[in-house]
Write a structure and sequence with these properties.
It is built from no helices and 10 strands. It is mainly beta. The chain has a single domain, classed as Jelly Rolls (Sandwich), CATH 2.60.120. It is globular. It comes from Enterocloster alcoholdehydrogenati. This is Cupin domain-containing protein.
């Protein structure tokens, strides 16, 4: 058992991206934040499934080319091999929880030149 406070960790990109509160041994748990206009490169996972639960704001999460506009209280479940891309197209920050399981040390495959219907 352990306890960690969000304030003890930092976002990957300063004011945005994931902030991992737990990595393994069976899952990852992160707080994720994006400021207006910020995004996270399209990618997929071979083994891990990913969930995003929106705490504040709105975000577009594109899964296999389909735009899903989510807001506070929404949860999206993404299966392994589904390409997903997150972008904050709105005028306020978005804050959400991300869980990834089962834990894999390295399971992210980035997708270059990702396009989708807007």
């Amino acid at each position: 058992m352990y306890i960690v406070n969000e304030n003890e960790k930092e976002y990957r990109f300063g004011d945005s991206g994931p902030k991992y509160l737990m990595k393994g041994p069976r899952m990852n748990f992160a707080v994720v934040q994006f400021m207006p206009g910020q995004d996270f490169k399209a990618h997929y996972h071979n083994v891990m499934e990913e969930n995003f639960f929106i705490l504040e704001g709105r975000i577009d999460i594109v899964v296999d080319g389909k735009v899903n506009t989510l807001s506070a209280g929404d949860l999206i479940h993404i299966e392994p091999s589904e390409i997903h891309y997150c972008i904050n197209n709105y005028d306020t920050p978005v804050k959400m929880i991300s869980t990834l399981a089962p834990y894999q040390e390295s399971d992210k495959v980035e997708v270059d030149n990702y396009t989708y219907e807007k």
